[in-house]
Amino acid sequence: MNASSSPPAGAAVNGQTTAVELAGITKRFPGVVANHDIHLTVRKGTVHALVGENGAGKSTLMKILYGMQKPDEGTIAIDGEQVAFSSPADAIVRGIGMVHQHFMLADNLTVLENVVLGSEKLYGIGGKARRKIKELSERYGLGVRPDVLVEELGVAARQRVEILKVLYRGARTLILDEPTAVLVPQEVDALFDNLRELKSEGLSVIFISHKLGEVLSVADEITVIRRGTTVGTAVPAETTPRQLAEMMVGSELPTPETAESTVTDRPVITVDKLRQQMPGGKALLDDISFTIHAGEVLGIAGVEGNGQTELVDALIGLKAADSGTITLIDEEITAWPTRKRREQGIGYIPEDRHRHGLLLEAPLWENRILGHVTEKPNAKGFWLDPKAAQEDTRRIVEEYDVRTPGIDVTAASLSGGNQQKLIVGREMTHKPRFLIAAHPTRGVDVGAQAAIWDHIREARREGLAVLLISADLDELIGLSDTLRVIYNGKLVADADPATITPEELGSAMTGAATGHLAHDETPDTPADTPGTPEIRKSPESPEDEAR
Hints:
Elements: E1 12-13, E2 16-29, E3 32-43, E4 47-52, H1 58-65, E5 73-78, E6 81-83, H2 88-93, E7 96-99, H3 111-116, H4 120-123, H5 127-139, H6 155-168, E8 173-177, H7 185-200, E9 204-208, H8 212-218, E10 221-226, E11 229-234, H9 241-249, E12 267-277, E13 283-293, E14 297-301, H10 308-316, E15 323-328, E16 331-332, H11 338-343, E17 346-349, H12 353-356, H13 364-369, E18 379-380, E19 383-384, H14 386-399, H15 416-429, E20 434-438, H16 446-461, E21 465-469, H17 473-479, E22 482-487, E23 490-495, H18 502-509, E24 535-536, H19 542-546
Parallel strand pairs: 4-9, 4-10, 7-8, 8-9, 14-21, 14-22, 17-20, 20-21
Antiparallel strand pairs: 1-2, 2-3, 2-5, 5-6, 10-11, 12-13, 12-15, 15-16, 18-19, 22-23, 23-24
């Protein structure tokens, strides 16, 4: 690892010319300097990773490169020529494309319609556009079919459509923001193959991720940002994930402790034969049954879109299931409204923080109240207590390391990771009996991720029951006491977190390992067969679990 430096615009770096050069970029907002004298040089035909803690300034820097914001100081050079962008349209003209973490596709349109939308002047909307899409898809190994409806595509295929969109517009440098956040290991491998194909054709990729192992496996160079400024570069072959993480935070990371089991025999939440159907008859939830005990984390593994959202909505009361029951401790709550469930001790970390977790234009202290309007310290009797809520917000900001100039700024002004830390702090503050944690560390850096895990483990030791849904398989395996796989709305398999690998779990999630039995149930398979996943069929109901 070494200190960052920037060559003259257009100069060759290690025998390769520069595709993008940001020099001395500074961007100020009221009360905060988001970027200060940042330097970033991306070589043509390379994958260049950009890493840093939440709030380090990565998103602001990429918004500047993509023309969404203007820098207060500094210069941008593309292919050696200094440029100034007033909008993303300017950046697109100069070959900069951005694939956002949250996909921007219309489900009710075909792939072709999504790709050409807004760029009809390039190749029209008919045969010429279809031929161009097919050409790009084949050239870069994207495997995209133009006439398929987007709503029929899985997460990985949707991401390839997003990449195709920017290539269709002539992008030569692609910005990928957390591209592996919702992918299983096999899909990550396929994405990395696509990226290698892109750079072999001379294109450049700026890869933003908090998954440092993936960064080291795919990147040619890594730039580290800390507190708004570049602190160094790293060559993947010469560093480790831990060294990279310590470079990001500026200090050594604590060594994780081995967690002991805290599972009790006291049921907290019991779900029995929960079922929900689409109007056409397709099952979104297919006889879902499980019990979570005090001190237990039940992890649900599955590719997004297999019923996780519907399960969470039913548990928190956003949308009732068609049949089945939900019991909290010893009281059936199936018909309870969301507020009553919250008041009786159900915490909720939503998968979509913008839709269900925050009021983006409201100040942080008002967001701290959401979901807990009637509870202390937010309320005193029948009245809100703003002063107490504000004071508690300051405590959450400090305890959960929410990077913000103050509690009166809007939630929209925070980075995604800091928004997530605020939500986690809000929910854990009220000491829930049962916590629904849907992607609790999505978009947060390694330091914040470890801190959130510690908060969940500490609450589990005190008797918290947790339903954990995550696309991070290391998180699922590391936090869960019990693992179950959901596929097409049905719990199809169990896995032992102590023995399962991410690759084996990813295989089960895609349906490839569905139906594998435990070793002791398969006479022809020795119990110690190397590489055999410890996956078994899921019981159909709590009664089956008891047997």
